[in-house]
Amino acid sequence: MGKRAIFVILILAVVWIILVEEISWQNLSVGLLVSIFSVYAFSRLFPYDEIKHVNFIKLATYPLWLIRRIYMDAFFLIRMIIGDAKCGVIKEPMHIESDALRFILSDSITLTPGSIFLDMEDDNIKLLCIGKRNVEGFPDVVGSLRAIEEFLKIAEPHKKDEKYENDENYGNEDGEKQ
Asked: What whole-number distance in Å separates Cα of residue 63 and Cα of residue 45?
């Protein structure tokens, strides 16, 4: 078990104590056991290789940011519905490479009022949206999509620059072959 797994177990145990609202040896031991089981089950049942490069430390503030975004979009949607609204389907390109972060993006889009995730095809996302009737397209939904996407990019793993990937001298300051 690595340092990361121990860190996750401790965080889950703290969340357990917060949820049961009572600090006792029984609750702490049950919380640790449930946390250990959860980490073990997660490591055995889920494809860790696909998410191991996602930086979850940078992603830690995302739930708070998303809650703020949900409320902002809800109040905007209330004003739009009271006025004049239309609905439609749009297909927009995604700028996120990681499948795990694409999954988070699709769930986040569905959570924010005014849009529902329909499908993901290659590098495009299809959404059912609500928008202002007198405006062409759905710029507010696209703006919300881009804002969520930009926030999620902070946790995306960085890749080598493809144009240098086949260069024998890539990463060598002296330009000598490695």
From this structure: 24
| Number of structural domains found in the chain | 2
Range of the domain at 98: 62-153
Cα torsion 38, 41, 45, 50: sign: positive
Counting every residue written for the chain, the total comes to: 178
For 73, what's the count of Cα atoms within 13 Å in the CB-facing half-sphere? Answer: 26
Beta-sheet strands, E only, within the chain: 85-93, 115-121, 124-132
Are the CB atoms for 133 and 125 separated by under 8 Å? no
| Residues contacting 133, CB < 8 A, separation 6+ | 84, 85, 86
Could you say which DSSP state residue 1 is in? Answer: -
Q: Any idea what the CATH number is for the domain that residue 147 is in? A: 3.30.70
Same domain membership, residue 121 and residue 82: yes
Q: How far apart are CA 97 and CA 154, in angstroms?
A: 12
Helix (H, G, I), strand (E, B) or coil at 96: coil
> pLDDT, tens digit, for every residue of 121-177?
888 999 999 888 888 888 888 888 899 998 888 877 665 434 334 444 434 444 444
